[in-house]
Design brief:
By secondary structure, this protein is α/β, with parallel strands linked by helices. It has 9 helices and 10 strands. It is rod-shaped. InterPro entries: Bact_StressResp_Reg (IPR051932), GAF (IPR003018), GAF-like_dom_sf (IPR029016), STAS_dom (IPR002645), STAS_dom_sf (IPR036513). Residues 225-336 form the STAS domain.
Length: 343
């Protein structure tokens, strides 16, 4: 007895089981490959869907994020893929994406909507929009079934499932791209911050170097501005130029006391010929120097006081009584020699 043909209900059940298994296979494939590039997702989606239907042509369109226009992300079985984006073609794809649901178009309806449609589509096609968060981001289409059978309800259901898998894969790719963009932004900002920090550190280091150089030059200038000249064994001459500040006076005192102790001199001549302006502070500093010298056993003589400086000192009421004053350095030296001869 020959076996009877399966009933339409039994065939439909078999197709549902087959489509369910294939959807599971597609899900496992996407999970295993972990695709994050949109065109790779489109190519895998089109190949698996075409394999299920055993079609000669397949097409995946995606919306370009920058321009908002449709572009061919993956295709096979078309002589001229560029013709798929002609004005009538784009109008058809846009209408199908707005329809949202899986749709099959027979040869007659396809020709009515797109008279110059590529030959690979003219045997009839099935397509479905790809939606991510309620926004159509692309379209999946297959055409030219080798069995020549029309696309049935079970096939359209399978297309809807395939579209859902594609939506999840594309959403994952979007999240991956966003994560990469945020990571690149964070890395760029970190690099900029590091570069700014390095620049600031370099500027601070340069400033420190300049300040150190200025300080070294200042010390050198101070040292050069207080040269000690020894005349014979007992006379130390200190020519003063510029301004006698409190800081310079402290330096002068320290160095003078050290030189008197080191050289064992009995006379110190402070020559102020190079000091053009004298005020109360300057006079006070000079008195301090003289008193300090006398405390360590050296007689201090102040020379080089010009008439204008003398008038200023008198006008300021400066107390110079503790200092022996002479008009010129020569007079000061002569006085020192005279006193040395009297010893």
């Amino acid at each position: 007895m020959e076996p009877q043909d399966p009933t339409p209900l039994a065939r439909r059940f078999e197709r549902l089981v087959e489509s369910t298994r294939f959807v599971q296979l597609m899900a496992q494939t996407f999970s295993t490959l972990d695709l994050t590039v949109r065109d790779d997702i489109a190519d895998t989606l089109g190949a698996l869907t075409s394999s299920y239907f055993d079609c000669r042509a397949r097409l995946v369109l995606l919306v370009d994020d920058d321009t908002g226009a449709l572009r061919v992300a993956a295709s096979d079985g078309f002589a001229d893929a560029g013709a798929l984006l002609s004005a009538p073609g784009q109008a058809l794809w846009t209408w199908l994406m707005h329809e949202k649901v899986a749709t099959q178009l027979g040869p007659t309806e396809l020709r009515s909507r797109w008279p110059e449609a590529p030959a690979a589509l003219c045997e009839g096609m099935a397509c479905v929009a790809i939606d991510v968060r309620d926004r159509s981001v692309g379209l999946l289409a297959v055409a030219g079934k080798r069995s020549s059978e029309p696309f049935d309800e079970e096939g359209l259901t399978f297309l809807s499932c395939a579209s859902g898998l594609a939506a999840m894969a594309l959403a994952n790719a979007n999240a991956h791209e966003l994560e990469l963009a945020q990571r690149r932004l964070a890395e760029r900002r970190a690099e900029e911050a590091a570069a700014e920090t390095r620049a600031k550190q370099a500027a601070l280091a340069e400033l420190d170097d300049r300040l150190a150089l200025v300080e070294a030059q200042r010390r050198q200038i101070v040292a050069l501005s207080t040269p000690f000249l020894q005349i014979g064994a007992d006379i130390l001459v200190l020519p003063l130029v510029g301004t006698i500040t409190a800081h310079r006076c402290e330096h002068l005192l320290d160095k003078l006391l050290a030189e008197i102790a080191r050289r064992h001199v009995g006379f110190v001549i402070l020559d102020v010929t190079g000091i053009e302006q004298v005020d109360t502070n300057t006079a006070h500093h000079l008195v301090r120097v003289g008193q300090a010298a006398s405390l360590v056993g050296a007689q201090c003589i102040l020379t080089g006081i010009r008439a204008s400086v003398a008038q200023t000192l008198v006008g300021l009421g400066a107390d110079m009584a503790s200092l022996l004053t002479m008009r010129t350095l020569g007079h000061g030296l002569a006085e020192c020699h005279r006193r040395l001869q009297q010893r």
